[in-house]
Amino acid sequence: MASLMFTDCSSMSSTLLHVNGPRRGAILFRQCVGQLRLRSTASGRGCSLSIRCSSSPSSATSVDGKAVAKTIRDEIAIDVSRMKESIGVVPGLAVILVGDRKDSATYVRNKKKACESVGIKSLEVRLAEDCSEEQVLKSISCFNDDPSIHGILVQLPLPSHMDEQNILNAVSIEKDVDGFHPLNIGRLAMRGRDPLFVPCTPKGCIELLHRYNVEIKGKRAVVIGRSNIVGMPAALLLQREDATVSIIHSRTKNPEEITREADIIIAAVGQPNMVRGSWIKPGAVIIDVGINPVDDPNAPRGYRLVGDVCYEEACKIASAITPVPGGVGPMTIAMLLSNTLISAKRIHNFK
Amino acid sequence: MASLMFTDCSSMSSTLLHVNGPRRGAILFRQCVGQLRLRSTASGRGCSLSIRCSSSPSSATSVDGKAVAKTIRDEIAIDVSRMKESIGVVPGLAVILVGDRKDSATYVRNKKKACESVGIKSLEVRLAEDCSEEQVLKSISCFNDDPSIHGILVQLPLPSHMDEQNILNAVSIEKDVDGFHPLNIGRLAMRGRDPLFVPCTPKGCIELLHRYNVEIKGKRAVVIGRSNIVGMPAALLLQREDATVSIIHSRTKNPEEITREADIIIAAVGQPNMVRGSWIKPGAVIIDVGINPVDDPNAPRGYRLVGDVCYEEACKIASAITPVPGGVGPMTIAMLLSNTLISAKRIHNFK
Fold first, then answer.
1. Which end of chain A is more exposed for a tag (fewer CB within 10 A), N or C?
2. B232·A191 Cβ contact <8 A
3. What was the pLDDT predicted at B176?
4. Residue A289, by phi and psi: left (phi above 0), alpha (psi -120 to 50) or beta?
5. Which run of H or E residues covers position A259?
6. Does domain A2-62+199-333 have CATH number 1.10.443.10?
7. Do domains A2-62+199-333 and A91-176 have the same CATH topology?
């Protein structure tokens, strides 16, 4: 029931800090003061945990993505309202859901709810699992031409009979709030160029570092995982901010050794508890993107969610770490809302 | 007169080796067996050298870019001829030169000569320094529409009154043989996507590693420099080949320490002799992209060319290293010819 314990722990000791810098503003800065005890399990990868919150100065700051995301959503709501009052425009997000995967339906529902909470208009198109690629392309084309829509999102994965690349490429670059278009990625990689949108999850990771005032410039950063959706763009973002970046992947021979050199670790590999305490440089800041279900007969649903980083080991060595859940997860949707607002502002030239 | 000495040295001990693998073929594999003696100069960065070629088993293999480029040009000439005979198509490269910079004129002349040597048709448009951006765009547009042109190259730098980004973006992505278009860079960065063209100099670096049968997969690679033209795409290419890549730049605090971990070093920073022997892991392979003129009263022109790596120190520690000149330099033009041929083949669906 670790995930519940995290949640309980997170609600116990929140303090409001004011962080310097024009774009920081007031943020919630929570110090997790949990006393962590490690219980080894049979699996080398598994690290079961038992947390009791108490005062322990050696514990890392728990980077509270839930609280930061809430702050960002509040900021967005203010901007959306200001835009509506000033020029009568409401940002609009269109979501295309193909098939009836339950997880996808849940994600889409959550995105719609998040839109509503900040005043962004959301439209949803549901297409049958066996619909044709042309039908999806037609929906995209309609939204590309619709001036009330500023962001278009095609919920992945698509049914296997469809060409994902072809479909994603059809989304107008000006409305590609997911930021996955190669032209956006190219601009992200190039000095002197700017992407129209930054992919949501990596943007959320960097935003957490900013909001917690973590210095990136000149620091060594390691990104574990090189997916198009998280690892690769996260590495490009860190590099844009002048970190010295190394990317670790399945072919890396000594990931532990390289990770131990990092001041900032972004783990996005989808391997439960892969990054152990011995991988971490004392004082490092850890952003854990992994959300992995592991069996837990004591949990209400028979499983619990853990990250790519063994939290209870890392917590003793790192200076700050995102919990799972409640770390990066809530930031992804907040960044989707942010990208939709940015798009509407750009299209309507609203500052 | 070090550069002359390099040339002399390179001509003394060439041996023809056959390297495994379908795309390797026969290559020239030259072992530089120079006895290297270091003479320190007043400048901490300068490392003057005196080479006498003799048998010394501890010296690195000199990666002979000149010979490899010659082999590649011969391969291209065969393909160009085969294409002409089979379908009557001659690959065509258009070069646009604006202004009268002497160095640019020399580069363009060399490119034209290289085209002629392999049977590629080259067209050149020269525009006055004070011509308008529209005139350049008009030339590009003509070549975009010209079916006999398969590659378009705008010689950089452009006069300061022009918007370089705007002009480069006007080149059709299908004819962007320089590979600098953000869409190409984006595809280069993404897994599961392929760029239409890979930028010439980084492509040349990787080709040298291939032709010398250097294993990249699973190796640690350090790229020094993060330019859009060399460093960044070189890092992306190494990553595509499953190296574990770190990028070092001006904000990196401990470049020496990080470089010393690398099995493969690509230096592209434009700092003469920056990478010293102490930076290099024994047995590393070094690709030196830098071509820096340094004062030398003994040289016929009063200067000589040196790389970013202090050759005479590196030569004792590395297992292989590209000389400057004669290393990466000749590869860049060879890769431009290769990209033009690839483009013609793709446009005419010729295998």
1. C
2. yes
3. 97
4. alpha
5. helix A255-259
6. no
7. yes
SS3 A70: helix
Q: Which of B178, B288, B296, B308 is catalytic?
A: B178
Give me the pLDDT at residue A25, please: 33
> What whole-number distance in Å separates Cα of residue A256 and Cα of residue A248?
10
Q: What residues in chain B have per-residue pLDDT under 50? A: 1-46, 48-57
Q: How far is B105 from chain A (nearest CA, A)?
A: 26
- In chain B, which ranges are continuous DSSP H helix? 2-10, 65-87, 102-118, 133-145, 164-170, 182-189, 200-211, 231-240, 255-259, 311-317, 329-347
Do A121 and A148 meet the contact criterion of CB atoms below 8 Å apart? yes
- Count of pairs with CB atoms under 8 A, one residue in A, one in B: 99
Was domain A91-176 assigned CATH 3.20.20.70?
Answer: no
Judge whether B238 is closer than 8 Å to chain A, CB to CB: no
Q: Where do we find the tokens 């190669």?
A: A182
Structure tokens at B43: 């400048």
Q: Report the alpha-carbon distance of residue B288 to residue B237 in Å, rounded.
A: 16
CA nearest neighbour of A6 among A298, A285, A323, A301:
A323
- pLDDT tens digits, one per residue of B137-176: 999 999 999 999 999 999 999 999 999 999 999 999 999 9
User: What end-to-end distance do the CA atoms of chain B give, in Å?
Assistant: 46
Q: Are A181 and A199 in contact (CB under 8 A)?
A: no
Q: Do B191 and A227 touch (CB under 8 A)?
A: yes
Q: Using the beta-carbon criterion (under 8 Å), do A226 and B239 form an inter-chain contact?
A: yes
- Would you state the pLDDT for residue A33? 27
Q: Tell me whether residue B74 is one of the annotated catalytic residues.
A: no
Q: Please tell me which residue in A66, A111, A175, A219 is annotated as part of the active site.
A: A111
Residue burial A172-201, b: 16+ Cβ < 10 Å; e: rest: ebebbbbbbbbbbbbbbbbeeeebbbbbbb
Q: Which DSSP letter does residue A159 get?
A: P
Structure token pair of residue A67: 């609280």
Distance in Å, alpha carbon of B72 to nearest chain A alpha carbon: 29
Spatial separation of the C-alpha atoms in residues B192 and B198, rounded to whole Å: 15
For the domain made up of B2-69+214-332, give the CATH fold. Rossmann fold (3.40.50)
Contacts B165 to A, Cβ<8 Å: 192-193
Nearest alpha carbon to residue A243 among A284, A282, A276? A284
Candidate list B31, B64, B66, B111, residue with the active-site label: B111
- Among chain B residues, CA nearest to A229: B190
Instruction: Return the structure tokens found at A206.
Output: 């960097």
Q: Is B155 a catalytic residue?
A: yes
**pLDDT < 50 stretches in chain A:** 1-46, 48-57
Contact: A182, B191; criterion CB under 8 Å: no
A322 interface with B at CB cutoff 8 Å: no
Cβ–Cβ gap B226/A191 under 8 Å = yes
Position A58 scores a pLDDT of 64
Q: Can the peptide bond before residue B282 be classed as cis, meaning omega within 30 degrees of 0?
A: no
Looking at the DSSP bridge assignments, the partners of residue B147 are none
Interface pTM, i.e. ipTM? 0.84
Which residues of chain B lie closer than 8 angstroms to A184, CB-CB? 186
Q: Where are the domains of chain A?
A: 2-62+199-333, 91-176
Q: Is B52 on the interface with A (CB under 8 A)?
A: no
H-helix or E-strand spanning residue A184: helix A182-189
